Amino acid sequence: MNNNTDIDYGPLAKLIGIWAGDKGCDIAPEPDGEEKNPYYETITFTAIGDVTNAESQTLTAVHYRQIVQRKSNNKVFHDETGYWMWDAAEGIIMHSLTIPRGVSVLAGGVYTHTKDTEGNSVLDVSASIDDKNWQIIQSPFMQKNAKTKEFHHQIKVGNGVLMYSETTILEIYGKLFEHTDQNKLLKQ
Ligand code: HEM
User: Fold this and answer.
1) 115 CA to middle of ligand 1, Å?
2) For residues 101 and 139, what is the distance between their CA atoms, to the nearest angstrom?
């Protein structure tokens, strides 16, 4: 592992720093339908250096911690951590995440260098229980009762603004549910 400060984080470079936003909208499953939770949050992205795998693959990595609070009562109701990783040789972005429900995800995607109309960089990653490369690991309880089947995450970042939109497809309460989260954050 190398912690030099002159490392090229590629498309992850713009993430590094502390971000805060209070325009969050969560749609979560309920036995009789769904609940909508307005939220605010802080996400801290920390550059941690690069790693070499099998003496041939080099990844640069950014660690993050996301703390999400309900507007209605200020309580933390989502706490997530993981890494974003950049494989410059293959042009691949990876996103690993863990949440304290007994669920972990390793999502991936090809970085297309796409910019949106405002000139923001666009990062897109996905995972699915049917994908052989980008997978979801979940506890026996969650596999049986609240199974995550797919995860899609898009970040648009540039000019001190970070917008994200996440869709987690769940099998819960006997049906498929689109659990979604989105927010707009400003660099602090
Ligand atoms: C900002 C991000 C997120 C927020 C605010 C959020 C919030 C919630 C809420 C409020 C529930 C309903 C259950 C409860 O009240 O505790 C829920 C359920 C769930 N979430 Fe999330 N979530 C987020 C992201 C994710 C992600 C990234 C995953 C997995 C990849 C995930 C997986 C699940 C699962 C499996 C459940 C079902 C458990 C249940 O409803 O009993 N969530 N989430």
Assistant:
1) 29
2) 8
